[in-house]
TrEMBL record:
Protein name per Swiss-Prot or TrEMBL: Golgi transport 1A
Keywords in alphabetical order: Golgi apparatus, Membrane, Transmembrane, Transmembrane helix
Gene Ontology terms describing biological process: endoplasmic reticulum to Golgi vesicle-mediated transport; retrograde transport, endosome to Golgi
GO terms for cellular component: cytosol; endoplasmic reticulum; Golgi membrane
Transmembrane parts of this sequence: 7-27, 33-53, 65-86
Gene name of this polypeptide: LOC103182444
Subcellular location: Golgi apparatus membrane
Transmembrane helix keyword on record: yes
Membrane topology: Multi-pass membrane protein
Length: 129
């Protein structure tokens, strides 16, 4: 079980690497497709097949899943720029509930914490006006 999770982290990591490398090489279709396949293939190894399906196919996350999968399909069908835009929107929609948690974690880091506190203070001062 632990080996499979490590294998999944490796697959997902390589997927992210190939996606970033594909974007850097002017949206190379092959690299983006390979990155998408590795990224999506690594998730079930990390969190399990049932939890992966439950996460992506919840009623409130169907929109994000649809945009993400449409983006993957468009990237594979030679529309990599539009595909990446749809994937990004889909991932943002899928993981928007995690952003407050991530910002709290990042605000506790020594270097980034100062920046996050400045941004949150400026947001609070705008809401008071």
């Amino acid at each position: 079980s632990e080996f499979l999770a490590e294998f999944g982290v490796g697959l997902t990591g390589f997927g992210v690497f190939f996606l970033l490398f594909g974007v850097l090489l002017y949206f190379d279709r092959v690299l983006l497709g390979f990155g998408n396949i590795l990224l999506v293939g690594g998730l079930p190894f990390i969190i399990g097949l049932q939890k992966t399906f439950r996460f992506f196919f919840q009623k409130q996350k169907v929109k994000g899943t649809s945009f993400f999968l449409a983006g993957v399909l468009l990237a594979l069908l030679r529309w990599p720029v539009l595909g990446m835009v749809l994937e990004t929107y889909g991932l943002f929609t899928l993981f928007k509930g995690f952003f407050p948690v991530i910002s709290r974690i990042l605000s506790n880091l020594p270097g980034l914490g100062f920046i996050f506190k400045l941004v949150s203070e400026s947001d609070e001062s705008k809401s008071l006006v």
